[in-house]
Amino acid sequence: MQKFVQESWLILVLGIVFAVLLAGAQTTLLPRIQVNQAKALNEAIGEVVPGAVKTETVDLKPTYDRNVFKCFDAQGRFVGWALDMLGNGFADKIRIVAGLAPDCAQLTGLKVIENVETPGLGNKIAEAEWAGQYQGLDAGRPITVQKHPPVAGQNEVRAVTGAMTGR
Asked: How many C-beta atoms surround the C-beta of residue 82 within 10 A?
């Protein structure tokens, strides 16, 4: 027992050193992380709302606690909406940007901007092929998740894994 106590000081010291290093890295890199997150959000908005080059943030709190963006083209014409969304994944939170037509009747695009899902399985949601199946879907009707390829006009998408089927 005495040997254990004598040798445990090293573990305690290493724990403190690594905690200080991690806190320092977080403090030092936080501004850069925030800039990169804002850049990823702006690029995603440009992808999910065709023609969008400028946005205005619309505050819908407390009804909706994430950002909603009113999107405009280079001439200042209203071209659609972008919604910053956060949901639960298997491993952690998944952050998605969805685009809506100006009348909110159709989805114009979907882009996953943050996820830590299983490589080769759950993280397939970040691929353009999976996200592309949402483009043109009716935003006023429920979207059905299926194992099989989606049927045109049925507001269906194909699941990445079997986890969401049958809902």
From this structure: 29
Q: Could you read off the pLDDT of 30-56 as tens digits, one per residue?
A: 999 999 999 999 999 999 999 999 999
Question: pTM for the full model?
Answer: 0.77
* Residue 46: partners with Cβ closer than 8 Å, 6 or more residues away: 52, 53
Distance CA(113)–CA(86), nearest Å, equals 10
Q: Which two tokens stand for residue 106?
A: 């159709």
- The CA–CA distances, whole Å, from 4 to 1, 8, 10, 11, 15 equal 5, 6, 11, 11, 17
d(CA 139, CA 104) in angstroms, rounded, equals: 7
